[in-house]
Design goal:
Elements (H helix, E strand, L loop, with lengths): L18 H18 L14 H7 L1 E7 L14 H16 L2 E4 L9 H10 L3 H18 L15 H15 L1 E4 L4 E4 H10 L15 H9 L4 E11 L4 E3 L18 E10 L5 H6 L8 H11 L2 E8 L6 E5 L10 E4 L6 H4 L5 H12 L3 H4 L9 E8 L6 E6 L11 E4 L5 H10 L11 H7 L36 H14 L3 E6 L5 E2 L12 E3 L5 E3 L37 H4 E5 L6 E6 L7 H4 L2 H6 L10 H8 L15 E4 L7 H14 L12 E3 L3 E7 L5 E2 L4 E4 L3 E4 L2 E9 L10 H7 L2 H10 L7 E2 L5 H15 L16 H19 L3 H16 L6 H11 L4 H10 L27 E8 L2 E9 L4 H9 L2 H7 L6 E5 L3 E5 L1
Parallel strand pairs: 1-2, 1-20, 10-12, 20-21, 22-27, 28-31
Antiparallel strand pairs: 3-4, 5-6, 5-7, 7-15, 8-9, 8-14, 10-13, 11-12, 16-17, 16-19, 18-19, 22-23, 22-26, 24-25, 25-26, 28-29, 30-31
């Protein structure tokens, strides 16, 4: 067959595969799939249940993309990269005998929709619904094989009813450190009442009043209200979580300054799960990089708590180096440490208050900047070093943060750079307690000495202990840090001055937002201000209607401003009369006027995908166990969860950490069988595109730029500079998929994005390169369909042996690469096969049908159409979607002959072709008969002949 038409007619053939025909084929098949429910996936039980079909479909597979946000600008071609990848994989797995759950929902609450509503005056529900409708249209046009019955939106009251219910479960639970799991609060109360558990401060439960008992219980809850340091963002008018603050101390939304403030907010006790969140990472099929990011964020470190006696009681510090206690020469407290006011000399009050005001204006990233000049105030008090009885002056300094450790440190200036700089500035002692290495002195060009006044910096390595002895303890002579820590910890515990312990960087999750567009808390407050959960029967608590969506915002630098939620203004909604079923009858309560953060809805959405229509529970246990239960048949420690979860690496310590936390609570409380939500995580890369800046360093629309690298680039006649960046709105370099549909069709776009490179790698977008995949599909189409008549031109004669072997090698490779999500190499093999067939006189059916089947996951619309034209659709229920994926014949994967290199004295000098199963003797004989070997031997005999069957022959002269 001819690859191209060298003499095209003036008119386009009626059945040529072009963009117009592609659109007809694609929209037609999308309508047929919808009408037939082609991708409806059965559950074992319930409204979507069909046990017989579940058994027929085969092994289960749950594939999920990370929740997209329905932006008003819609998708650009960078967004669907992961979506296309999961669709290709899902389609492939259906064809290999799997029951695949694959759908898509929308994470639709949050700040962007609210800000847009403020700007336009349109209710966020209206714009959000319009955005979702547009995204659904764009995603449908891609041909994604979602079970649309399972699609959800976090803004649907029927969905966030269960988000509120889960919050209630968390509120009414506590963490039992003895059993290492969450338990219902009712069990905690029962243990207090029976005497099985004592109140932590020694009080007797039966002698406590009702308010005191409630306080004790509230202090144990996994969701609790706290007056604690929070991240206040005046420019947004709301607080934000630690994970939502960028490295330079600004909000990840809006890029506004963020300040530390004490406010009364909802918190979640994620710190209770710190060990499990770290340890269970070992059971997950995630990249080492993502696991490392979570471990570093949680920040578990071994150390000791040490008590320093003071006039007002012990000051406790956490240190990872208790062995350096002999080197402590002063103490530093965080400016807001609760002991400061009790310890400080009254004459220091004004100086302390001035310093506090100065520190409150700084952001966390500034406070942790080790390069800035150290500042502090001596508060006029001392504490006792427990190992030697020395009196250590107490300072406050803003490089010690209340949110880390205990908010107090023992300063060991000889071994810590920050403490060294602080001590030098304020003239504090720097006793040497470890012998620095020779390289330390050499690197600073100073003579070896324990006189720290000659040191330009602290020695932060490990050296032999010196000056580390007292009457009851000595570390001198111990040569390693581990030995020093062990001896010091034993002494601390034996003498009642401290104990070995573990510390974490992770802090409890700040869960309140002063917004409108979010899930209302299912909480009301009684006359005493105590929170109560609303009965399940009254859920959902729906957002009230209002035209004022915006919280009060402030000057971005107004650190002392106070939040005001839009819901605070709706008094008719805030005050409510309810019967909570607690025996008090109808009472007047006040609703909580904060809303949950956007992360709430995405913490559990995979479970609602399983059972989106249930009214009496958030998921049926039988269905959750089927789709997400632990796979002990795979490995004994399998944690359960989604079989493949695909999304961006940017969610490593936000969504992924939060979702794991919620899921573990639900597991502890017996609501799910899976220990983890996402068994396997795959991070797709990004599509990058050229972006252009004008002379003002402002991005301009990339589509309006003219020129090239050689002649230079211009925007409306003015020169611009080019750079490469992630495709998106901010860089003005987005390309709409709608443009690609119109120019080439969805199948070409799908194929191009999968062929650009490995799915987990970022790659540059080039619209001009899309045509390469377009032409491949045109060649494939011509090999099967007559462009003039539309008839199938496939012949039933058998293929030649070489083509048949190439087919089965292609099948073998494509299967391997599809299983590994390496779609680009699978596509390369299919192009190679098609190119080979193009050289034949006609396409044999035995090649055409498996080729179309292999392409079906990648270009499903064309594959469906070709399958129909091949006359096979009526044999397979009208669709290729569930046709068995081709299997390679092992006999055709074996080469009858093999090329073997011949080495002479270790260097390749010739090659011979022999039977693939040739024996050692046959290989040696063929090598000795080779002309280059005969010439090298020159009538002599080799000293040795080394034969590796099928690999090489080495003749040693």
């Amino acid at each position: 067959m001819s690859d191209v038409n060298s003499n095209p007619s003036p008119t386009t053939p009626a059945h040529r595969y072009d963009a117009a025909l592609a659109q007809v084929i694609e929209t037609g098949w999308q309508d047929r799939w919808d009408a037939a429910g082609t991708f409806h996936t059965p559950n074992p039980v319930g409204p979507l249940g069909d046990a017989e079909l579940v058994a027929e479909r085969g092994e289960k597979l749950f594939v999920q993309d990370m929740f997209p946000y329905p932006s008003g600008v819609g998708l650009h071609v960078g967004h669907p990269l992961g979506f296309i990848g999961t669709d290709v994989f899902s389609r492939y797995k259906r064809m290999t005998g799997h029951n695949v759950l694959y759908t898509m929902g929308f994470d639709a609450f949050g700040l962007p929709a609210e800000q847009f509503a403020v700007q336009t005056g349109t209710h966020p529900a209206i714009t959000t619904d319009a955005n979702i409708a547009n995204m659904r249209r764009q995603l449908r046009r891609l041909g994604l094989s979602h079970d649309t019955r399972r699609s959800i939106s976090t803004t649907d009251p029927s969905y966030y009813r269960w988000t509120q219910w889960i919050f209630g479960q968390i509120f009414n639970a506590w963490y039992d450190v003895d059993q290492h799991r969450a338990r219902p609060v009712e069990e905690l109360i029962a243990e207090f009442e029976s005497g099985a558990r004592s109140v932590s401060d020694g009080r007797v439960w039966s002698e406590l009043g009702e308010a005191e008992r409630n306080d004790v219980v509230d202090d144990h809850r996994l969701a609790y209200i706290s007056d604690a340091p929070v991240n206040w963002c005046p420019g947004l008018g709301t607080v934000v979580a630690n994970e939502e603050v960028t490295a330079d101390g600004r909000s990840d939304r809006g890029n506004f300054p963020v300040f530390k403030r004490n406010m009364r907010q909802w918190m979640m006790r994620i710190t209770a799960y710190a060990d499990r969140l770290i340890d269970d990472l070992d059971t997950l099929d995630w990249t080492d990089a993502i696991k490392a990011m979570q471990r570093n964020w949680i920040g578990r470190s071994q150390g000791a708590k040490v008590d320093f006696a003071s006039p007002t009681g012990p000051i406790t510090v956490f240190t990872t180096r208790p062995d350096t206690l002999f080197g402590a020469s002063f103490m530093v407290l965080s400016p807001e440490h609760p002991l400061v006011d009790r310890l400080a000399d009254p004459s220091k009050t004004a100086e302390i208050e001035a310093y506090r005001a100065q520190a409150e204006g700084k952001k966390d990233f500034e406070l942790q900047d080790d390069t800035r000049e150290k500042t502090g105030v001596d508060i006029g008090a001392t504490a006792t070093n427990p190992v030697n009885g020395e009196q250590l002056p107490i300072w406050i300094a803003d490089y010690v943060l209340m949110g880390y450790g205990t908010g107090a440190i023992m300063a060991v200036p000889c071994g810590d750079e920050r403490d060294f700089e602080f001590a030098r500035k304020f003239g504090l002692p720097i006793p040497a307690i470890q012998q620095p290495t020779d390289s330390f002195f050499e690197s600073h060009d100073i003579e070896p000495s324990l006189d720290t006044s000659t040191w330009p910096t602290a020695f932060v390595g490990d050296g032999a202990y010196v000056n580390s002895s007292s009457d009851s303890l000595t570390l001198d002579g111990i040569g390693d840090k581990a030995g020093g820590i062990a001896r010091m910890n034993a002494w601390l515990e034996a003498n009642g001055h401290g104990e070995a312990t573990v510390n974490y960087k992770l802090r409890d999750w700040l869960f309140s937002r002063q917004r409108y567009w979010g899930e209302p808390f299912p909480i009301v407050y009684d006359a005493d201000g105590r929170p109560h959960t609303v009965p399940d029967a009254l859920l959902p608590i729906e957002l009230p209607e209002t035209e004022e969506f915006s919280p009060r915002t402030f000057d971005a630098d107004d650190a002392m401003s106070n939040p005001e939620s839009p819901l605070d203004r709706l008094q008719d909604w805030v005050d409510v009369e309810l019967d909570l079923g607690n025996g008090d009858g109808v009472q007047t309560y006040r609703r909580d006027t904060n809303v949950m953060p956007q992360w709430a809805g995405s913490c559990w959405y995979q479970m609602r995908y399983i059972d989106p229509t249930l009214d009496d529970r958030f998921v049926a246990p039988e269905n959750e166990a089927y789709w997400m239960g632990p796979r002990t048949d795979v490995r004994p420690d399998h944690p359960g969860g989604i079989d493949l979860y695909v999304g961006g690496v940017e969610h490593a310590v936000l969504h992924l950490l939060y979702a794991r936390f919620w899921h573990k609570i639900l597991f502890d409380l017996g609501h799910v069988s899976s220990i983890e939500p996402y068994a396997k995580l795959y991070n797709q890369g990004y599509i990058q595109a050229a972006a252009f800046k004008d002379s003002r360093e402002i991005y301009v629309e990339a589509t309006e730029v003219d020129g090239d690298e050689k002649s230079g680039f211009t925007f409306h006649g003015e020169p611009v500079t080019r750079e490469w960046g992630k495709m998106g709105k901010s860089l003005k370099n987005a390309v709409s998929p709608d443009e690609m549909y119109e120019q080439y069709g969805a199948d070409t776009l799908r194929l191009y994005e999968m062929a650009m490179g490995p799915l987990d790698a970022s790659r540059p977008w080039s619209t001009r390169d899309v045509v390469g995949q377009y032409r491949f599909l045109q060649r494939l189409w011509r090999n099967i369909v007559d462009e003039d008549t539309g008839d199938c031109v496939v012949v039933d004669e058998p293929a030649d042996d070489d083509t048949r072997k190439l087919l089965h090698r292609t099948i073998d490779t494509v299967r391997t690469e599809m299983d590994a999500l390496r779609f680009n190499t699978a596509i390369a093999k299919l192009i190679e096969l098609n190119n080979a067939v193009t050289k034949l006189d006609a396409m044999p059916r035995e090649i055409a049908e498996p080729m179309v089947a292999m392409l079906a996951p990648l270009v499903p619309h064309m594959a469906e159409e070709l399958w129909t034209r091949l006359g096979r659709s009526t044999d397979t229920g009208g669709t290729i979607a569930y046709v068995a994926f081709p299997v390679a014949d092992p006999a055709l994967l074996v080469d009858e002959t093999v090329e073997v290199p011949i080495q002479i004295n270790g260097k390749v000098r010739s090659k011979i072709v022999v039977a693939s199963d040739a024996s050692r003797d046959a290989l040696e004989a063929a090598a000795m008969a080779d002309a280059r070997v005969v010439e090298a031997l020159d009538g002599g005999e080799p000293r040795k002949v080394i034969v590796v069957p099928g690999r090489m022959v080495n003749v040693v002269l």
